[in-house]
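Schema walk-through. Below, the input block comes first and the output block second. Nothing else is stored per chain. Lengths vary across the set, and this one has 378 residues.
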Amino acid sequence: MRTKFYVFLFILFGSLAVSWLSAAARLLTPGQPLPSFKLTGTDGVVYTPEDWKQSKVLVVAFLCNHCTASQVYEARLNGMAQRFNSAGVAVIAIQSSNPAAVTERDLAWSDVGDSLEDMKERAEFRKFRFPYLYDGDTGSTAQAFGATVAPYIFIFDAARKLRYEGRIDSDPSDGQSTVHNASDAIEALLADKPVKLSTTTAVGCKLHLGATTNAKSMPESRPIDVTLASAEMLTALRRNPTGKLLLINFYATWCGPCVTEFPDLMATNRMYRDRGLAFTTVSSNVPAEKPEVLAFLRKMNATTTNLLYGSDDTYAMQDAFDPNAGSAVPVTVLLSPRGDVLFHEQGEIDLMEIRRAILANLPDDPDHVGAQAYWAAK
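--- output ---
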């Protein structure tokens, strides 16, 4: 009897587990109703489907800040919102990836992460013409729709029945032969015609749904040191001997703004170094302060190339690098592999500006086509 009881429990809980997994992975199919949700937008407004009850068509797109595939479609969603707005079409976007599950390495193709504050930054930067809603804490809205990647789009008719789900179009590069599936579906609904192709396969970045483990990068075990730099070394540094994109930050441990921005610069290094970014810090402290500088670098986990002026004549040392760079710290310079100045800032940096300058000058790879053009666009 005991064996039969255990077999019964195994079958019962096995069936429940299968049902739960199926429900978690279930995708909305054409004809099904719009799931309910209550989400906060980047404008601080809490939205529900009732906010668009007068719209003839409702378009719901799932995006992800750090995803290149999602980024390249932001402009197309903007265009869609602008084009169809007067026809009674509402376009909204939802970000469902949990920011706590995103590492600095995941941000190698982005200026920001996936938090609501990061979404505000992106919405302002790209001038979104649609509400951008946050679902990252639980991912429950994405799960209700069955969205697993970004971008992913769902289009509902006036009765809020699903009429199209899948990709926005057939080609991220938007070539001449691109099939604009989402726009075609909207036009059919506005003309009271059936949608010819109601389901396509969405391709993009996997959404980190409901993850609660904080995936922030842990302190590294790489050696941290600082080298006394001669004038000749600084002159050579200006020519960029690395063969990579080179970020250089001049700072001092006694400079308040320098110390404040240093952690963000270190995070920036960790984000992009595997993509061909080299980073050198140059302390304008005097040589006698080397122990203090080294202690600061270790506290900041500065696993960069670290230099310290090798002379008490700090003005001469700065001039050896570049007389036009400025002598008051902080100074931040971004050099091309050929030594061209791509970014220069004397004083506190705009972190987003420097990250976007880096991204605009790092080349694509086969898995991230269109990234450089996205960041180079103004």
